[in-house]
Amino acid sequence: MSHHTDNSGAALNIAVLTVSDTRTEENDTSGQYLVEALRASGHKLADKKIVRDDVYQLRAQVSQWIADGSIEVIITTGGTGFAGRDSTPEALAPLFDKTVEGFGELFRAISYEEIGSSTIQSRALAGLANDTLICCVPGSTGACRTAWEKILREQLDGSHRPCNFVEHLRRGDKR
Predict the structure, then answer these.
(1) pTM for the complete prediction?
(2) Segments making up each domain of the chain, as ranges
(3) Percent of the chain's residues with pLDDT above 90
(4) What is the distance in angstroms between the CA of the first residue and the CA of the last residue of the chain?
């Protein structure tokens, strides 16, 4: 039986992780876009970090956030392509309790309208771990904008129907 709670006005605690060997707080336009977008939608920034594109550093940071009962959503930007050090999918997919198969598919379908067949090189993905939604999007600011405006803004809004992720994130001691 499904347990539905009215979370229509819920402000979520969201952590943003930029995956990059070269970005700093001064030039991290993608991470900054996500921070501004989530705040504009009424959510709270729980934490923001920049981590090198290293499987173990990524897993360590995201695992720490997954274990933190106050963080409900993690959005990562970067490391989803095919370059030599791109390792976000390999680092984070093993942490998922459940994979959100449709996230990457939908992101690529939407992105196709914007950048054509180049979207095939995006390995955007999402999953749930310990009642925390983890969404991994490409590192460009345009890709972050696409993910936020076309998928995440609605799915992180408790009033969006017929369904959204808020009810899956507000369980147990995470309230």
Answers:
(1) 0.92
(2) 13-170
(3) 86
(4) 20
Which pair of tokens denotes residue 77? 């930007």
Q: Does the pLDDT at position 4 exceed 50?
A: no
Cβ atoms of 32 and 64 closer than 8 Å: no
- The pLDDT of residue 140 is above 70: yes
Q: Which CATH superfamily is domain 13-170 in?
A: MoaB/Mog-like domain (3.40.980.10)
Residues 152, 1: Cα–Cα separation, whole Å: 26
Q: What is the 3-state secondary structure (H, E, C) of the chain?
A: CCCCCCCCCCCCEEEEEEECCCCCCCCCHHHHHHHHHHHHCCCEEEEEEEECCCHHHHHHHHHHHHHCCCCCEEEEECCCCCCCCCCHHHHHHHHCCEECHHHHHHHHHHHHHHHHHHHHHCCCEEEEECCEEEEEECCCHHHHHHHHHHHHHHHCCCCCCCCCCHHHHCCHHHC
Cis check for the bond before 162: say yes or no (omega within 30 of 0).
Answer: yes
